[in-house]
Amino acid sequence: MTIPTRTLGTTSPLTVSTLGLGCMGMSEFYGSPDEAGGIATIHRALDLGVTFLDTADMYGPFTNERLVGKALAGRREGVQLATKFGNERLPDGTRLGVNGRPEYVRKAADASLERLGVDHIDLYYQHRVDKTVPIEETVGAMKELVEAGKVRHLGLSEASPETIRRAHAVHPITALQTEYSLFTRDLEDEILPTLRELGIGLVPYSPLGRGLLTGAIGATPDTGDSRATAYFPRFQGDNLATNLALVDRIKQLAAEHGCTPGQLALAWVLAQGDDIAPIPGTKRVRYLEENVGAVAVELTADDLAALEAAVPRDAVAGERYGDMSTIDA
């Protein structure tokens, strides 16, 4: 099948594949790293027309950018490459906090370019907002990267409406990356209307609820998987039981629709607007291929209403993070 494209942003537009690929789990967080599987998945994604790839310097840390760079060797053309800075870590994994200081922005970008082995980044995000540094200063440094040709477009991640407005006044913001799925819909109240007012695209991460919405998770993930920790309350105890009951409803609707639960959940995200390009993550070719199949799932207004009735916004149990302190609100 042919993957269509969508355009993120209007003032500084970037055309991407309708469905992207989140590469984080290839290197950290969701079980054991798998470089070979990750590279094979990226190559298959490119073959299928999934050209919007997402990474960050803190994944690994640093190893995911190198993996993506290795996979893109000789295949850079036609790829929309996104990476992020701001969650500062040491090579041993130690977390130093959020850093939005201009001198760090410049240093981080140069390091990412070297690890990726490319001469420019298509979409460069501030991964988390540094509440100790005025957003104007951080985005001012990011703007300099655009002027230097190192970066083509700018993005923010997990930013509040006020921060988005202030950033956009310094330099056009092409996209906001934040969590959005049938299980996480709070951004519909203020953030999504702000994006559409300003002409900024949305890149949902975890559009499958960190795997819950695929229907493949039936118990707390294995040790070594960050979803098994208190950092992700939706996977703990009674919360998990409540959420799996919601997933059972999605499974029933998916069976009626002739697709998998994950495909139905992704199709719902895709149906929320042509200015939205989700980036489901995987390190397995078979899951990538399943996700790509969501592009062909057509949902009517009745289908969308049935899904939203099956999973009411306030029915999901647990915060999306155990510690929400780094989320700009």
TrEMBL record:
This is Aldo/keto reductase. InterPro entries: AKR (IPR020471), Aldo-Keto_reductase (IPR050791), NAD(P)_OxRdtase_dom_sf (IPR036812), NADP_OxRdtase_dom (IPR023210). Signal peptide: none annotated. SUPFAM superfamilies: NAD(P)-linked oxidoreductase (SSF51430). Gene3D superfamilies: NADP-dependent oxidoreductase domain. The keyword Oxidoreductase applies. It comes from the Bacteria. Keywords: Oxidoreductase. Residues 19-310 form the NADP-dependent oxidoreductase domain.
